[in-house]
Specification:
Blueprint: H1 2-69, H2 74-97, H3 105-113
Length: about 120
């Protein structure tokens, strides 16, 4: 009789553990989603700030060069276009860094190097 009661207790404990693990999995999924959203917002804000700052830098350098050389706004146009180009490049670079990365750092390194992953 005691053997049956032990079996019932083990069954109930196993079901409680399974329930707790399921709850933890749901909480972890919520936390991961929040962290992912936060990282994406951070990357978006950084990309916007890079774009604006490079454009402003291009305007400042171009305007200063035109004043220094006493020329028409040719330097302003050149440096504004350069600032826009660099801004787009930075946005592209930032968005490539936020792409899904493998969990294994060795795989990430081999993807970056373009080599085959090491055999384990």
């Amino acid at each position: 009789m005691s053997n049956q009661s032990d079996h019932d207790r083990l069954s109930s404990i196993s079901s409680e553990i399974a329930g707790i693990r399921a709850e933890e999995a749901v909480e972890k999924a919520k936390t991961d989603a929040t962290a992912s959203d936060s990282a994406n917002m951070s990357a978006g804000a950084r990309a916007g700030a890079e774009m604006v700052s490079l454009l402003i830098a291009g305007v400042a350098v171009g305007w200063g060069a035109d004043k220094f050389f006493n020329t028409a706004p040719i330097f302003l146009i050149i440096f504004v276009l350069t600032g826009i180009g660099l801004g787009f490049y930075e946005v592209y670079r930032i968005t490539q860094n936020t792409a899904a990365k493998p969990a294994n750092p060795r795989l990430q390194k081999t993807q970056k190097d373009g080599t085959k992953p090491p055999k384990e």
